[in-house]
Amino acid sequence: MSEHKTPSAAVTPDPEVIYTDKLRVSCDGGGGALGHPIVWYSLEDGEAECGYCDRKFIYKPNETSH
């Protein structure tokens, strides 16, 4: 059995990972009008994944990158 990626899997980028020092974050997809409705997530468990765009938010005190 040969293994091969489907065309969509070959061009789909990995979801964005955002590190934040906030315990509550919002996500709008980052695409302006092409994004999605704003949703809010709690990071009290250390991380959350957006249900729309799969962005992953990770809580890291005193460390941010956007």
TrEMBL record:
InterPro entries: Znf_CHCC
Domain annotation Zinc finger CHCC-type: ranges: 24-57
Keywords (A to Z) from UniProt: Metal-binding, Zinc, Zinc-finger
A GO molecular function held by the record: zinc ion binding
Superkingdom in the source lineage: Bacteria
Protein name: Zinc-finger domain-containing protein
Organism: Hyphococcus luteus
